[in-house]
Amino acid sequence: MAGGAKRVAALVLAACLLVIAAGCGGGGKSNANGTTEGTTTAAAATTTKPAATPLAKGAYVTRMKAIGRSLSTSLNSLGSATTAAKAAVALTSVQTDLRKAADRIESITPPQPIEAQHAKLAKAVRDFADELDPVIAKLKNGSITALQTVPTLKGLQEIQTASTAIANKGYKIGG
Fold first, then answer.
1. Which of 16, 26, 1 lies closest to 149, judged by CA?
2. Which of 15, 27, 138, 155 could form an SS bridge with 151, CB 3.0 to 4.6 Å?
3. What is the mean pLDDT of the chain?
């Protein structure tokens, strides 16, 4: 069964990598000059927090690609899982990394032309992470075939849709 489990894990890994790498990369709020926000001066601390300056297109693409690379690294661990138990551990790690990626995406102030698509992408990544709970539970119960459902999860499809919408506006954040 180890060979079958490895094929299932490889299939899931390939599907997830294609979608995630097409859709993510980068983190932290920065201004158009690329400096990280979060430092405050005494004067700034006494006023209401101003809206974050949207990233310039190049800075946005760079940050999003970095998030995508970190997720790809995480997903690679799933490809080496040969048993349901190992797949459960690997997928739990992927789930944690997806949630961290969603946090990083949400912390970015995207360029105005893609604000809506960026918000949809962040939500989709978080939703996908949440949808992995029942898959992980089945894996913990010994069902390696539970991995076959991962490519069909709504969140993964929504990641692809949001990523494509961002790319269609000229922001090539994938691969």
1. 16
2. 15
3. 81
